[in-house]
Specification:
Chain A: It catalyses: (1S,2R)-1-C-(indol-3-yl)glycerol 3-phosphate + L-serine = D-glyceraldehyde 3-phosphate + L-tryptophan + H2O. Chain A: Pfam families: Trp_syntA. Chain A: GO terms for molecular function: tryptophan synthase activity. The complex is a heterodimer. Chain A is an alpha/beta fold. Chain A has one domain: Aldolase class I (TIM Barrel, Alpha-Beta Barrel). Chain A is built from twelve helices and eight strands. In chain A, strands 1-2-3-4-5-6-7-8 form an eight-stranded parallel beta barrel, surrounded by eight helices. The model of chain A has no long low-confidence stretch (mean pLDDT 95). In chain B, helix 5 (99-113) packs parallel to helix 6 (126-138). Chain B has 17 helices and 14 strands. Chain B has helices spanning 8-11, 30-47, 50-64, 74-80, 99-113, 126-138, 148-153, 155-163, 178-191, 209-217, 219-232, 247-253, 282-285, 323-330, 341-355, 361-375, 395-401, and strands at 19-20, 23-27, 70-72, 84-89, 117-122, 141-147, 167-171, 196-198, 238-242, 263-271, 287-291, 293-298, 335-340, 382-387. In chain B, the strands form three sheets. In chain B, strands 3-4-14-9-10-13 form a six-stranded mixed sheet, with helices on both faces. In chain B, strands 1-2-12-11 form a four-stranded antiparallel sheet. A four-stranded parallel sheet of chain B has the order 7-6-5-8, with helices on both faces. Chain B has two domains: 19-61 and 99-209, Rossmann fold, CATH 3.40.50; 66-96 and 218-402, Rossmann fold (3-Layer(aba) Sandwich), CATH 3.40.50.1100. By secondary structure, chain B is an alpha/beta fold. In chain B, strand 9, helix 12 and strand 10 (263-271) form a beta-alpha-beta unit. At the A-B interface, helix 3, helix 5 and strand 5 of A face strand 2, helix 2, helix 9, strand 11 and strand 12 of B.
Chain lengths: 275, 406
């Protein structure tokens, strides 16, 4: 079983929910990312989602766009991100790492070379925002060859007929985008999310994580009632950026990130149905 | 719509997946997939609907002012002494460029879908103006996304859009030009997809846009083909058009693709010279990749990051190109060349002084190459250049480049 499969199945047995923080690789500096990943695991992260910087991140709101821009100022490439995962794996053999990004850097590297490099580095899953099932067959073949999960987004606009297509193409887990919009936007309606997750569960046994719009312990707890995992992205990227801008230094920024993730962990674990 | 003049090879693209050979497709976030499918289904239905076609043709005739003339540039041709140069006068359309052909068509689609709001991206502002114009006419809310750098160099068009009632949204991310405006328009669309129709201005973006924009713009080539036969008794020997995203070019080229005797040239923006790296010529110096929902040639670095582009013309300042052009390049049906900033500027002045026609700086790239090409040909041959837009919007830019303060 893949690391993702193992983690979700153990959490399920323990009636716990996955906490999945998202950070942008190399934001604000190259040397920051690997140590931050370790600290997020200690703070309660079950899976780490690592954003691969791209010049044109079309689905990101301003907060994560700026994270990509900061990383690109240091020239952080897909190869560099894979090096970071390699370094992370030297100390952590258990926590799944999922790369999230856009198609072009992967296309440029070549699907076979990318799959091999992910496998060598110890990447467990991939989310490519702009590779819907219709465009993913060639890459999927390569990922399957090396046993890496391909995780797909499902959105509130996805009709039932497509949900089945997506769930039958996906592995690892599914990522429900709780909002029509870009990352970091708006407020979540937990009831609407709950209703939609029912429709997805009718087609699949894969775990479902929910993201886009979870910003604190309360919103994470509300969503964790219904989802198998929650993704926290913009709130975390923003907290780090603000801390750095306030002059806290990298150490201070890491501390702020840890505090936020600990708080969300607590929120998720003390949701009403877990009490 | 134009299948009768084409061998199957050209009429059958894109396929049902929106692909032109290995190019095209739908590389977008899941949230947009359903909107694209609905748009495609509606378009496929309306493209064969006589009432819709009548409505489109009526607007082109009575609102845009079509057909646009084919004009023999006699003095310019005499001066060059080679092939006769004919200009397809898209600059005489309402709003001053070819862009309106497409916005009329897409606004009709928006109306059929019951959308109350339209959005558009713009570089030079021509597509933004054309979108704001049709929005005003149909009483639709309109937001136009425009890079901060382009807002500065196209101030006249910005004010025109505001006069037409559109909101011009400055885009401050990335290189602050057309590609970033398109990112921001996509972000707006993904957020407001239920009530908003995205009027893409070029043959770029995800399927079905490259197909439907091509179909709406193909009126240019259909008219030019008939006009050439009527005026000269034969088809042209060559076609020339500038290529940014490539909508005016595909509009001229497409109805001639099956006429194998007609040579086809797309002219990209050479900026400071293709060798300098500071240009916007992905078909000349780029590699295939995925951007803005489509697989096509891109200006990108070895890590797949999209590179900054440079062109004196905001409308050509784009690191990608429509997927059909990528395919036409690969199969060898069209040649893609380039003209530098300086060459375009010289052509701008020459056409203005010799023919009394002031072309847009984008269009001036096509003129620059057409002059070179004509010089290698004979007076019995003729070339059609798509005079895609008028140059009023560029007067301040030209004055600044000439060191004149207005």
């Amino acid at each position: 079983m893949s690391r993702l499969g193992t983690v979700f199945s153990e959490l399920n047995k323990a009636k716990r929910k996955a906490l999945i923080p998202y950070i942008v690789a190399g934001d604000p500096e190259r040397g920051f990312t690997v140590s931050l990943m370790h600290r997020l695991v200690k703070a309660g992260a079950d899976v780490i989602e690592v954003g691969v910087p791209f010049s044109d991140p079309m689905s990101e709101g301003p907060v994560i766009q700026q994270g990509h821009e900061r990383a690109l100022e240091h020239g952080v490439s897909l190869r560099n991100v894979l090096e970071m995962v390699t370094a992370f794996r030297e100390e952590d053999r258990d926590t799944p790492v999922v790369l999230m990004g856009y198609a072009n850097p992967v296309v440029r590297m070549g699907y076979a070379a990318f799959a091999d490099a992910c496998s060598t580095a110890g990447v467990d899953g991939l989310i490519t925002v702009d590779l819907p099932p219709e465009e993913v067959a060639d890459l999927n073949q390569e990922l399957k060859r090396v046993g890496i999960d391909n995780i797909f987004l499902i959105s509130p606009t996805t009709p039932d007929a497509r949900i089945g297509t997506i769930t039958s193409t996906a592995s690892g887990f599914l990522y429900y985008v709780a909002l029509k919009g870009v990352t970091g936007a708006g407020n979540l309606d937990a009831d609407a999310v709950a209703a939609y997750l029912e429709r997805i569960r009718a087609t699949t046994d894969l775990p479902i994580a929910v993201g886009f719009g979870i910003k604190d312990a309360a919103s994470a707890a509300a969503i964790a009632e219904y989802a198998d995992g929650v993704v926290v992205g913009s709130a975390l990227v923003d907290a780090i950026a603000r801390s750095v801008a306030a002059g806290d230094g990298l150490e201070g920024a890491a501390g702020v990130a840890v505090k936020l993730v600990e708080a969300i962990r607590h929120g998720v674990d003390s949701r009403p149905s877990a009490a | 719509m134009t299948a009768e003049t084409h061998p199957d090879k050209y009429a059958s693209v894109p396929d049902e997946h929106g692909r032109f050979g290995q190019y095209g497709g739908k590389f977008v976030a899941e949230t947009l997939m359903t909107a694209l499918s609905e748009l495609e289904a509606l378009y496929r239905e309306l493209a064969n609907d006589a009432d819709f076609q009548r409505e489109f043709d009526y607007d082109l005739a009575h609102y845009v002012g079509r057909p646009s003339p084919l004009y023999e540039a006699q003095r310019l041709s005499d001066e060059i002494g080679g092939a006769r140069i004919y200009l397809k006068r898209e600059d005489l359309n309402h709003t001053g460029a070819h862009k309106v052909n497409n916005t009329i068509g897409q606004a009709l689609l928006a109306k059929h879908m019951g959308k109350k709001r339209v959005i558009a991206e713009t570089g030079a502002g021509q597509h933004g103006v054309a979108s704001a114009t049709v929005a005003a006419r149909l009483g639709l809310e309109c937001s136009v996304f425009m890079g901060e750098e382009d807002i500065q160099r196209q101030a006249l068009n910005v004010y025109r859009m505001k006069l037409l009632g559109a909101t011009v949204v400055p885009v401050t991310s990335g290189s602050r030009t057309l590609k970033d405006a398109m990112n921001e328009a996509m972000r707006d669309w993904v957020t407001n997809v239920d009530e908003t129709f995205y009027i893409i201005g070029s043959v770029a973006g995800p399927h079905p846009y490259p197909m439907l924009v091509r179909d709406f713009q193909s009126v240019i080539g259909r008219e030019a083909r008939q006009q050439s036969l009527a005026m000269t008794g034969k088809l042209p020997d060559a076609l020339v058009a500038c290529v940014g995203g490539g909508s005016n070019a595909i509009g001229l080229f497409h109805p001639f693709l099956g006429d194998e005797s007609v040579r086809i040239y797309g002219v990209e923006a050479g900026g400071h010279g293709v060798a300098s790296g500071e240009h916007a010529a992905p078909l000349n110096a780029g590699t295939p990749g995925v951007l803005h929902g489509t697989r096509t040639y891109l200006m990108q670095d070895e890590n797949g990051q999209i590179m900054h582009t440079h062109s004196v013309s905001a409308g050509l300042d784009y690191p990608g190109v429509g997927p059909e052009h990528a395919w036409l390049k690969d199969i060898g049906r069209a040649d893609y060349v380039s003209a530098n900033d300086d060459e375009a500027l010289a052509a701008f002045h020459r056409l203005t002084r010799i023919e009394g026609i002031m072309p847009a700086l984008e269009t001036a790239h096509a003129m620059a190459y057409a002059e070179k090409l004509a010089a290698t040909m004979t007076p019995e041959q003729h070339i059609i250049v798509n005079l895609s837009g008028r140059g009023d919007k560029d007067i301040l830019t030209v004055a600044a480049l000439d060191g004149i303060e207005l």
